[in-house]
Task: inverse folding
């Protein structure tokens, strides 16, 4: 939520850089995250999605 560098995302999600690049690109296209410098930050739309997903138990 406060932002994370790509390397941190790779290690936290236990994914390789190719997979993370695909996910980040898709999330940016959907408006769920935005890039601020070298950080990826969750947008309001992304935060709303997270809340709905929690409520639904996803």
Result:
């Amino acid at each position: 939520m406060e932002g994370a560098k790509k390397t941190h995302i790779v290690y936290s999600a236990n994914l390789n850089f190719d997979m993370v690049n695909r996910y980040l690109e898709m999330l940016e296209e959907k408006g769920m995250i935005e890039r601020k410098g070298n950080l990826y930050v969750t947008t309001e739309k992304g935060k709303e999605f997270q809340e709905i997903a929690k409520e639904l138990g996803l």
User: Anything to note?
Assistant: The chain has three helices and two strands. The CA atoms of residues 5 and 39 lie 5 Å apart. The beta strands are 33-36, 39-42.
